[in-house]
UniProtKB/TrEMBL annotation, chain A:
Residues 4-240 form the ABC transporter domain. The keyword ATP-binding applies. The keyword ATP-binding applies. Keywords: ATP-binding, Nucleotide-binding, Transport. It comes from Methylophaga sulfidovorans. It holds the Pfam family ABC_tran. InterPro entries: AAA+_ATPase, ABC_transporter-like_ATP-bd, ABC_transporter-like_CS, P-loop_NTPase. It comes from the Bacteria. One of its GO terms (molecular function) is ATP binding. This is Phospholipid/cholesterol/gamma-HCH transport system ATP-binding protein.
TrEMBL record, chain B:
Belongs to the MlaE permease family. InterPro entries: ABC_MlaE_roteobac, MlaE_Permease, Permease_MalE. This is Intermembrane phospholipid transport system permease protein MlaE. It comes from Methylophaga sulfidovorans. GO terms for cellular component: ATP-binding cassette (ABC) transporter complex. One of its GO terms (molecular function) is phospholipid transporter activity. The complex is composed of two ATP-binding proteins (MlaF), two transmembrane proteins (MlaE), two cytoplasmic solute-binding proteins (MlaB) and six periplasmic solute-binding proteins (MlaD).
UniProtKB/TrEMBL annotation, chain C:
This is Phospholipid/cholesterol/gamma-HCH transport system substrate-binding protein. NCBIfam families: OM_asym_MlaD (TIGR04430). InterPro entries: ABC_MlaD (IPR030970), Mce/MlaD (IPR003399), MlaD_Phospholipid_Transporter (IPR052336). Pfam families: MlaD. It comes from Methylophaga sulfidovorans. Residues 39-118 form the Mce/MlaD domain. It comes from the Bacteria. GO terms for molecular function: phospholipid binding; phospholipid transporter activity. Transmembrane segments: none annotated.
Length: 267, 259, 155
C-alpha cells in the first residue's frame, strides 16, 4: 500500500493545462523523484499533495486520506505529519535560525523550553549548523538556508518530506552536502521522500524510483537504471541533457532561410 | 470596440472578485482574533512595530498641525474680536476631524505601507506557504495579530495627535500671540463635549484603524509574489487607504454630527 | 519566541501615553470636569424668552461661573420657559431675591445667565424659584423696536 496515491489528476491554471490525467504511487520508506523540464508543474504537484491547491479532477490520497475531502482542521492535522522543503528555504526572516527550527515545536507542542532547546540542537547538529543557531536567515547562504529548513521540516518527526528543487543553484560542495543529508535523513528516520527536481545526476543518485513528466503527463517511470536504458528518445534527451532531440532547440516558427528572404517581420 | 467592452467587462469582474476576496479575508481575520487573547505576546510584538514606531511621526505632525491651527485660527478670529475662542477652534478641529483623519493618513503611509511590504515579502519568499505546510495558519499566526494591533494603535495615536495638537495650538496662541490662557482653556472646555466630540473622534479613529490595517494586510496577502508586485501593492495600500479614510470620514461625520 | 523586555516596556509606555492623551482630552479639553459637579443644588427660573440659551450654558454672577443650565422646558400653564439651574455647592449663600437675566457673550457669542445678587438675608436652597427674571434679548426684536421708535420720534 503506497503512502501517496494520485489518480487521474487534472489541473488547469487559466487556459494552461498543467496536469492531464496523472497517476503516481509513492512507496513508503523510499525516495521517489519527480522530474521534468522547467514549467511542468512540479512545484504545483507538491502544493496539490499538501492541500494548498485543489485539483480540477482526480484524487490524491495521503496515508489513506483524500487530501481534498478533509476539513480545515483535519488537513492541518495531516500537515503536521508532512514536511516540506521549499526551494528558497522559506525561513521566517524576522527570527534567528534557532527560533526557526523551534517554531513548529512551539506552535504544536507544549514542551518545556529546555526540552525544545535539546530537540532543536539535535536537529541542527544533524544538519551541521548547531553553531550557526544565532545567525539571522539573511546571513545564511542558500545551501545553509536549505539545511536549516530541512532541520525545521523534520523537527516534528513527520512521516514524509517533500523537497522542492533542493539542488537548484547550489555550488558543488553544498550540492554534495544536501544529497548526502537527504539520503541520511531518509534512512535514519525511515521517512518517505518526494524529490522534485531537474538535476538529473544528483537526483538519480538518491532516488529509488523516478517519474518523468512533460506536457502534463507522465512520460516514463522506473528505477534510475531502467530509465537510463529506456528506448524513448525523449527520455534519453532529458537524462543526458542533449541540446536537440524530440524537444527542439528552436522555438517553433517559420524556417530560418524563409525568414531571411522575407523583408517584413511577420513571425 | 468589442474588445474595449470585453476588457471593461473583465475589469469589472476582476474588481468584484477582488472585493469578494477582500471580504472573505476580513472574515478569516476576524475569526482569528479571539484566539489571540490566549497568545497576547504576538499582539504586543506588533503593537511595537505598528504603534510605537509611528509615535514620533504622530508627535511631530500633531504639534505642527496644532501650531498652524493656532496661527491661522487667530488671524481669522481676531477680525471678529473673538480670539478667546481660539481654544475651541483648535480643539474642535483636532478632536473631530484632523486628529482622526490626519493621523490615519500618516498611519497609512507609515505603518500601512510597511505592513503591505512585510506581508508581500513573506508571500514572495514562500514564508506564508511554508507556514501553511507546517500546519500553522498564517492568517491566525501572522495576519490577525497585526490586524488587532492596528485597531488598538490607531485610536491611541489619534489621541496623542490631538492632545499634542491642542498643546501646539496653546503654545502659539498663548505664548506667541498672547491669547489669555484662562479664556483659551475655559472656552475650550465649555464647547468641547466629551461624548459628542471626543468619543465620536475615537470611534472614527477605530474605524480608520480597522480599514487601513485591513487594506494594508489584504494588499500584502493578495500581492503578486514578485518585487514589482509587492511595490505596486504598497502604492495601492496608500492610495486606497487615503480614499477610504476621506470617504468614510464624510459618512461618519454625516452620521455623527449631522442632525 | 522570546519576547524582549524592552519591547514590552516600550509598548506599555505607548499604550499608557495613548490612554493619558485620551484622559487629557477628556479632562482638560472637554466638559467632563463639569459632569462630575452635579452635586450642587437646583433652582428654577421662568423666562419670557430664552433665546439661544442651551442646556449646559453657563450661569454666572459678577462674571464668575456659579453653575450651569441643567434643563430647559416649557411651563404648560404660563407658557413661559422654565429653566433649571444647577448651582455649584460652594455658592450656598446667594440671596433669595436674586434676579436672573439672559445675556449674550459679545455680539455673536453664546448666551448665558447672569445673576445679580439681591439684599435678603435668606439664601437660595434646592427647589427654590427665582422670580425676578429678564428674558433674552432677541436681536430682531431690538432692531424692530429701534426702528419703530425712530419712526415715532420723527413725527
Amino acid at each position: 500500500m503506497p503512502l501517496i496515491k494520485i489518480r487521474d489528476l487534472h489541473f488547469n491554471r487559466g487556459d494552461r493545462v498543467i496536469f492531464d490525467g496523472v497517476n503516481i504511487d509513492i512507496q513508503r520508506g523510499k525516495v521517489t523523484a519527480i522530474m521534468g523540464p522547467s514549467g511542468t508543474g512540479k512545484t504545483t504537484l507538491l502544493k496539490l499533495i499538501g492541500g494548498q491547491l485543489r485539483p480540477d479532477k482526480g484524487t490524491i490520497e495521503v496515508d489513506g486520506q483524500d487530501v481534498h475531502k478533509l476539513s480545515h482542521s483535519e488537513l492541518y492535522e495531516l500537515r503536521k505529519r508532512m514536511g516540506m522543503l521549499f526551494q528558497s528555504g522559506a525561513l521566517l526572516t524576522d527570527i534567528d535560525v534557532f527560533d526557526n527550527v523551534a517554531f513548529p515545536l512551539r506552535e504544536h507542542t507544549n514542551l518545556p523550553e529546555s526540552m525544545i532547546r535539546d530537540l532543536v540542537l539535535m536537529k541542527l547538529q544533524a544538519v551541521g549548523l548547531r553553531n550557526a543557531r544565532r545567525l539571522s536567515p539573511n546571513e545564511l547562504s542558500g545551501g545553509m538556508a536549505r539545511r536549516v529548513a530541512l532541520a525545521r521540516a523534520v523537527a516534528l518527526e513527520p512521516m514524509m518530506i517533500m523537497y522542492d528543487e533542493p539542488f537548484t543553484g547550489q555550488d558543488p560542495i553544498s550540492m554534495g552536502t544536501l544529497v548526502n543529508l537527504i539520503h541520511r535523513i531518509n534512512d535514519a528516520m525511515k521517512l518517505t521522500s518526494i524529490v522534485v527536481s531537474h538535476d538529473v545526476a544528483e537526483t538519480a543518485e538518491i532516488a529509488d524510483y523516478i517519474y518523468l513528466m512533460s506536457g502534463g503527463k507522465i512520460i516514463e517511470h522506473g528505477s534510475p537504471v531502467q530509465l537510463k536504458d529506456s528506448g524513448s528518445q525523449w527520455v534519453q534527451q532529458f537524462m543526458q541533457g542533449l541540446p536537440d532531440g524530440p524537444v527542439p532547440f528552436h522555438y517553433a516558427g517559420p524556417d530560418f532561410a524563409e525568414d531571411l528572404l522575407n523583408p517584413e517581420d511577420n513571425a | 470596440m468589442i474588445n474595449y467592452i470585453r476588457s471593461l467587462g473583465r475589469w469589472g469582474l476582476g474588481s468584484f472578485e477582488r472585493l469578494g476576496r477582500a471580504h472573505i479575508f476580513l472574515v478569516a481575520m476576524l475569526a482569528g482574533v479571539p484566539g489571540l487573547f490566549l497568545r497576547f505576546s504576538l499582539v504586543i510584538q506588533q503593537l511595537f512595530s505598528i504603534g510605537v514606531l509611528s509615535v514620533m511621526l504622530i508627535l511631530i505632525s500633531g504639534l505642527f498641525v496644532g501650531m498652524v491651527l493656532g496661527l491661522q485660527g487667530y488671524n481669522t478670529l481676531v477680525d471678529f474680536g473673538a480670539e478667546e475662542s481660539l481654544g475651541v477652534m483648535v480643539s474642535l478641529s483636532l478632536v473631530r476631524e484632523l486628529g482622526p483623519v490626519v493621523s490615519a493618513l500618516l498611519f497609512a503611509g507609515r505603518a500601512g505601507s510597511a505592513l503591505t511590504a512585510e506581508i508581500g515579502l513573506m508571500k514572495s519568499t514562500e514564508q506564508l506557504s511554508g507556514m501553511e505546510m507546517m500546519a500553522v495558519d498564517p492568517i491566525k499566526r501572522i495576519i490577525a495579530p497585526r490586524f488587532l494591533a492596528g485597531i488598538i494603535s490607531m485610536p491611541l495615536l489619534a489621541a496623542i495627535f490631538s492632545a499634542v495638537g491642542v498643546l501646539g495650538g496653546f503654545l502659539v496662541g498663548h505664548g506667541l500671540l498672547g491669547v489669555d490662557d484662562g479664556a483659551f482653556w475655559s472656552q475650550m472646555q465649555a464647547k468641547t463635549d466629551l461624548f459628542e466630540d471626543i468619543f465620536n473622534g475615537v470611534i472614527k479613529s477605530v474605524v480608520f484603524g480597522l480599514v487601513v490595517t485591513w487594506i494594508a494586510l489584504f494588499e500584502g496577502y493578495d500581492a503578486m509574489p514578485t518585487s514589482e508586485g509587492v511595490g505596486r501593492a504598497t502604492t495601492r495600500t496608500v492610495v486606497h487607504s487615503a480614499f477610504a479614510i476621506l470617504g468614510l470620514d464624510f459618512v461618519l461625520t454625516a452620521l455623527m454630527f449631522g442632525d | 519566541m522570546m519576547q524582549s523586555k524592552s519591547t514590552e516596556i516600550t509598548v506599555g509606555m505607548f499604550v499608557a501615553a495613548g490612554i493619558a492623551a485620551l484622559f487629557v482630552l477628556a479632562m482638560k479639553v472637554s466638559n467632563l470636569g463639569d459632569l462630575t459637579e452635579e452635586k450642587g443644588y437646583q433652582v428654577t427660573a421662568e423666562f419670557g424668552n430664552v433665546g439661544g440659551l442651551k442646556v449646559r450654558s453657563a450661569v454666572t454672577m459678577a462674571g464668575v461661573r456659579v453653575g450651569r443650565v441643567a434643563d430647559i422646558s416649557l411651563d404648560p400653564k404660563t407658557f413661559d420657559a422654565k429653566v433649571t439651574l444647577n448651582m455649584y455647592p460652594q455658592f450656598n449663600n446667594i440671596p433669595i431675591d436674586t434676579s436672573a437675566s439672559i445675556y449674550t457673550a459679545g455680539l455673536l457669542g453664546e448666551q448665558y445667565i447672569g445673576l445679580v445678587a439681591g439684599a435678603e438675608d435668606e439664601s437660595l436652597k434646592n427647589g427654590d424659584v427665582i422670580t425676578l427674571t429678564q428674558p433674552a434679548l432677541v436681536l430682531e426684536q431690538v432692531i424692530g423696536q429701534f426702528l419703530y421708535s425712530k419712526a415715532e420720534g420723527s413725527d
